[in-house]
Fold this sequence. Notes:
Order of helices and strands: EEHHEHEHHHEEEEEHHEH
Helix content: 25-40%
Oligomer: single chain
Number of strands: 10
Shape: globular
Amino acid sequence: xxxxxxxxxxxxxxxxxxxxxxxxxxxxxxxxxxxxxxxxxxxxxxxxxxxxxxxxxxxxxxxxxxxxxxxxxxxxxxxxxxxxxxxxxxxxxxxxxxxxxxxxxxxxxxxxxxxxxxxxxxxxxxxxxxxxxxxxxxxxxxxxxxxxxxxxxxxxxxxxxxxxxxxxxxxxxxxxxxxxxxxxxxxxxxxxxxxxxxxxxxxxxxxxxxxxxxxxxxxxxxxxxxxxxxxxxxxxxxxxxx
Length: 242
């Protein structure tokens, strides 16, 4: 969790199917938590363990973007192929990283590790929209970073879109009020319409960091209330509209 003017929660997502599980983002570990003054409730690996998913089993991980809170702990997924946009790798290793304000949300150790994954032939690059598996696709958004992608999932309640940092909070999208960490402001604003296009409704869009997500959605189990939510079930409360 992050204490600030508005609290941030940090999530990873598991898309659980009948035959396979795909993980979206790999969060961050204790090293980054200590360096950045973040409270780490559970490592991503431990969070997955809590719902009986062993990170060593995972064969596909979608990385929405390479910021430290979305692309750390990849070493805990030793058998995974990582799916990322071409532009995101270009962004994280290119000329824009000369500027402190641009690189502040990146961990150079995570980026170096990801380059190693490329050389290990464990990264699948996508140029725009792509199907990862039946009913699961990635869609280019940009804005927050050069190569940010959202994830569209066909669930029991319809097409859900994991917005990641295309909309940190419900209010970012509902009020067209972007989060202040941004690569391209115009693209970020247009990205809200990208999310709406791919989701069945605004109540099928899940923001990337809003603590309200854990209040709106049923828990995975009573013991995990307030920690793990079921996004394939309808929310308790409809997201506030402007």
